[in-house]
């Protein structure tokens, strides 16, 4: 049993990750203002002191504590740390992501220090964004004649606290009003004071706005985290730490991608240059959070043993190496290096060594001849290594996988035109454990949450990239309305139909679309492959030229058509593909409107086909929406 302390953005994320397990847990908040939907969790409201928390943990056999409270909730942090130590219960601190401390900001150790600093800088008019509970701590500034304005939530309880501290209505500003949009224009403030509240607390936005207005910024430093806690700062790190400390909670465990392994090995190789050999290194993932990855060392290289979790991954356990050399900035650049930001000085050149495949066909992130190290892993390596100080010299990073050549023939790489080894891949940096039943159950859980949140319009997508694009198209929909189907379009539609969503949008990319158009409701490669003859049939139906038909014979991936087809023919072809997709999807619905939206990652075009269904018919009532 797990007990989570929340009431924050991090609390919501913790709920989302724990719900994936399907096991019970407790979610505790100080007040009842935060609205959350729990399917497997039990809500607790009200603060607990040390003795109350100890009693609760013993009575309910709590095996893990998660503190996802506000960074400045010091009493909560101390209470959880003391109980964890006394009862010998492991504790996780779900911290926020914090940007590096800006030297242009005046950093204050606490509120007493802040009062002294504000006075020393001769501030006459101050904007305080530190929250209603801190008004009493800043009241000495008001008493000393400094004109202070306080921004608070527009709640009766907050107003009461402000008034009790002698703050007049003229000196109170509310969140979520016109004042919030032009907060800094209403008075010539000399300075702003805020808390180091992290990325999710909007810290950088507040600082940027103040600087634009020429204001001096004072910031209260966040409290130090107790060493009792295992600290994480994102959803992936949270799940992996829960898997480590309470292995039985999740039926299946997550893993890390080859891209994350390569990045961790490169980071360790940088430490090795300085004679350091840490057992684990922090890796910043694409979403900005950090996780720690265990590393090992060889002669002039570092390596990671691939952790695939419970995913049946052929690369599980293999050794992924990295070596790093300091090189002069005028080192000649090979054609392989002419990618990303290699033109910047100092450069970070990334090359493939033993066991890394070579790209031989167009259509990938990089040109033929390049090492098969995808764009996101390259970006991860550069982002993480740029945090090191290396005296302005450039770096040459070589990634190698000794077993790569041997296992490459067991992958799809040869079919994709990648020869001589395997690829270094990964978009999120994390591998979600594979299980058809588990995946479909997770789809159902996500839909349950969406329904419980009152969502009537459900958007089904294939993964992170398509979700981002669809969210931009549907900015009015909440996050819960977007549910990943992976490859299981048919199962997702059946579940959505059972839950009677009024409108269902399916976002699909061309690779899955050509499979679905042929009737494959499960688009996984083990169930369906790209049928070139059927693609040619759809080309003829779209009115494409005979020369275009011939392109299908040499297709490596369906998405290559995006760059190969003339724009007019591409639009016509996509419309035909989506019409066929619609014909296979529509019968799965007995109620509600069905939309198909084509998600394209290159060329500035987004063809769309939209239709509605009633009673399982294939009737298309919106043919004018073909673009």
List key phrases describing it.
CbiD-like, Rossmann fold, six-stranded parallel sheet, alpha/beta, disordered C terminus, 627 residues
Report on this structure.
It contains 21 helices and 28 strands. By secondary structure, it is an alpha/beta fold. It folds into four domains: 107 residues, 3-Layer(aba) Sandwich (Rossmann fold), CATH 3.40.50.720; 115 residues, Rossmann fold; 177 residues, CbiD-like, CATH 3.30.2110.10; 190 residues, no CATH class. The protein has a six-stranded parallel sheet, with helices on both faces. It has a six-stranded parallel sheet with strand order 6-11-10-7-8-9, with helices on both faces. α14 runs parallel beside α16.
What percentage of the residues does DSSP assign to strands (E)? 15-25%
* Quaternary class: single chain
Radius of gyration: 28 Å
Question: Would you count the extended β strands for me?
Answer: 28
Coarse morphology: globular
Portion of residues within helices: 25-40%
Which structural class fits the helix and strand makeup? alpha/beta
Number of helices: 21
Major beta-sheet overview? 6 strands, parallel
Q: Provide the spatial order of strands within the biggest beta sheet.
A: 3-2-1-4-5-12
Termini distance? 52 Å
The parts where pLDDT drops under 50 for at least 5 residues are: 178-184, 611-627
The tally of domains stands at: 4
Average pLDDT taken over every residue: 84
